[in-house]
């Protein structure tokens, strides 16, 4: 199985949890947009579709912020049955009246059940997604959801660099064992066995 990380607006920097996943575990690669500063709904979805179709075998998608929106939009329009599921962290509410102008061009969000298993991770104080809106999106998309108290946008500036729990979630929802890259021994990260056998996530 391959894992594709899908960053959002401005991309994911060197200490972002998506970058740490790519550097720590085998089988992770990034969907790279031509212009991280310009959110373009159609081009971002098309680039994700290209990346999925370039993979030989099963794929699991890991999105953050506007990248989570791109995954949802791709699933609603270009779904490939080899994609077994997706973890969507802090999808940005690009339809919100107060959303930054730079991301509003990504609207609209899908309004129906997505054709793959999806797990949403949101927080109760995200400036780009209210808890209520997160619950509504999970319901519309047929997704499971968990709330991280005080997590903000679950981004680097909110303290989410190396993030043990996201590796646990990926293992749980993909059904795969995450294998460390040789020499990847970041302090405090889960072992492969922990990643597939971890218990109930925080609510």
Supply database-style keywords.
single chain, 203 residues, globular, alpha/beta
Question: Strand portion, in percent?
Answer: 15-25%
The succession of helices and strands, N to C, reads EHEHEHEHEHEHH
Count every beta strand, where a strand is a DSSP E run of 2 or more residues.
Answer: 6
Number of helices: 7
Oligomerization status of the protein chains:
single chain
Mean pLDDT: 91
Q: Helix fraction? A: 25-40%
Distance N terminus to C terminus? 28 Å
Largest sheet: 6 strands, parallel
As laid out across the biggest beta sheet, the strand order is: 2-1-3-4-5-6
**Uncertain spans:** 187-203
Rg computed from alpha carbons, rounded to a whole number of angstroms: 15 Å
* Mass-distribution shape: globular
Secondary-structure-based class equals alpha/beta
Summarize the structure.
The protein has 203 residues and is of the alpha/beta class. The chain contains seven helices and six strands.
